[in-house]
Amino acid sequence: MSGSPALLLDRVNKRYGSLSALDGLSLTVPQGQIFGLLGPNGSGKTTTINLLCGLLSPTEGRIEVLGRDVVASPRSVRPLLGVVPQETALYGELSAWRNLLFHAELYGVPRARCAERAQRMLELVGLWERRHSPVKTYSGGMRRRLAIARAMLHEPEILYLDEPTLGIDVASRRTVWSYIRHLRSANKTILLTTNYLEEASALCDRVVIIDHGKAVADGTPEELGRRLGGSVLELATEERASPELIAELESLAGVVAVEARDGGLAVTYTEGDANAAEILNAVMARTALTSFAQRHTSLDEVFLRLTGHDHLG
Amino acid sequence: MTISAECRAALAVAANWCRVSARDRKFAFTATLIPINYMVLFLIVVINGGRDPSAVVVQDHGPYARAIVRSLAGTDSFNLHPMDARAALRSYHDGRLVAIITIPPSFDRLLAAGDAATLGLQIDNQEDDFADDIRRGVDGAVNRFAASVAPRRAGVAVSEVDDNRHQVPYVPYVLVSIVVIAIMIGGLFYGGVSAAREYEQGSIVDLLMAPRSRASLVLGMALGTFVVATPGVLLVLAALVLGFGVAPASWAEVLLAVLISLALYAAAGVLLGTITRQRHGLSTLAALVAIPALAISGAFYPSSWSSPVIAALARATPTYYVNGLFQHAFYAVRTTPTSIAVDYGVTSLFLGAAVLAAGVIMTRRAQPA
Predict the structure, then answer these.
(1) Mind listing the pLDDT tens digit for each residue in A185-214?
(2) Distance CA A85, CA B317 (A)
(3) For residue B2, is it within any domain?
(4) Among B107, B142, B162, which residue terminates a domain?
(5) Count of the separate structural domains present in chain B
(6) Are residues A63 and A97 located together in one domain of the fold?
(7) What is this structure's pTM?
(8) ipTM of this complex prediction, to 2 decimal places
(9) Closest by alpha carbon to A44, among A211, A217, A208?
(10) Domains in chain A: how many in total?
(11) Least CB-CB distance to B202: which of A50, A79, A85?
């Protein structure tokens, strides 16, 4: 188990009649990483999570969690997993304390250790003082933290976080991020899906982008930016870029995309094939340049280019 | 212009409502089932229940015998089936007949001689109301025959044999059904809510991700339902005993019947909630399931006295056996041809099947509706 990847999907297909939700998806997630699963609505993210949890069976392919076959022995796999679903799925009428004790009973945490573990987790997520308040009185951020505490209560090796900061404020988002980083420092493996590419960039060691049930790209956020996007030169000009200028820029070797904006241009290019000086010269020959800035492509731009969707969901 | 705009809006609302309803399969199913339910209830209680299944064993084929059979057949009180003596007795002991009327071999000869002839009447008198229907029906038929066909001076008497020492009056018999319906509705509704709520708030994922069997989860929900529904059932029982003076023949049997039937309907409720995955409409659905099941179960009279189709349908539902358990617990009468032990066994099998089915469906439905 120690040498096995935390998660393994090997050529997994999941079909519903003629509809293919996953189409030969393969993934390997090493232990101790934060792994981001990104994709638009209907891309197969939730199906992937449900397959890894054993809540669905694949039509074809092999799925392993820490070397154990999810399909053959789902009950032996489940104690290894903690899940924070998108809906925090807590019992609003009950207190945080009762929610955690119920989870502990369900997962067979030894009776003598239930209270101690619940206290430790509530202290970790900063909810100890509010432990007796009904959860329905909690803010979105507090619920999310409690859901993470619940998922960690039985000390799983792997945590699935489905949109962990969806719908919560910026301050709570930062707090949740710090818990997630804390979990990685405890050598837990985390698989997260997120709506926020900024979040994936900030948290994930590796990211896979899936679309139509297939992996279309994977790597570190920086690698993806370099490999699939390269650099972006943002240019502010006095006049709107003419069609001739755009055509000339597009004809330069290594230029991937040219986007005309009010008051300027954004030119995406792969370094090595093209260089910034060449692009700047072409622009200055046709219009007055007021300022420019260079940066790496964002995951957002990579995602847009790969899937044709302008946002995640 | 204003009126036309208002009309347009009204039509748009109506069309939109129809479109939404047509695409909401649960709503369409419920809306269709409601009138069918009440039709079933009326057919069973009013039409079927008004005519008691009875056999006529004709051992004389003379003109007077044929005339009395015609007179009996013209009575609304029973549904008369000509049979030989052996077949009639077999059906009677199987619980499919309320009474056997026998025209003896000497019927015509005695009447022609101006003597009194005697009709045999054997009644399953466990339910007072039905026994009285039979008595009134036979008396009416004999009077009509005596007035119009029988020779002057001759008379027709009826020799009645009642097979049960204790007759249960109609109202107390039906009152027991109130306990059954309370248990059914309570179990189905609360059980349904217990499962549907987990789906609605998404906590079903946490339950299904636990390293536990689905049967444990279903049994847990059913047990919780049992506890929540018990006060309501106890209140109905108390009202029955204290308010209506219905004294159970065996309190132990009543408690056992409550225990097993509430567990059964709680599990069936969990199954219902697992199918719908929504609390919305569960009470309607629970009533829709409960009303026809109760109507055919023998709540108003033993199901075996219904038409063969309804009797067969009744035997395929758990409520038939549950009703039998309660009638036996309260009045020591049998409404099923099977033994009480078999009825408990079949009820337990239905309980097991409900748990199993809910577990299987839960495994396949991990996500909210």
Answers:
(1) 888 999 998 767 778 888 999 999 888 888
(2) 39
(3) no
(4) B162
(5) 2
(6) yes
(7) 0.74
(8) 0.74
(9) A211
(10) 2
(11) A85
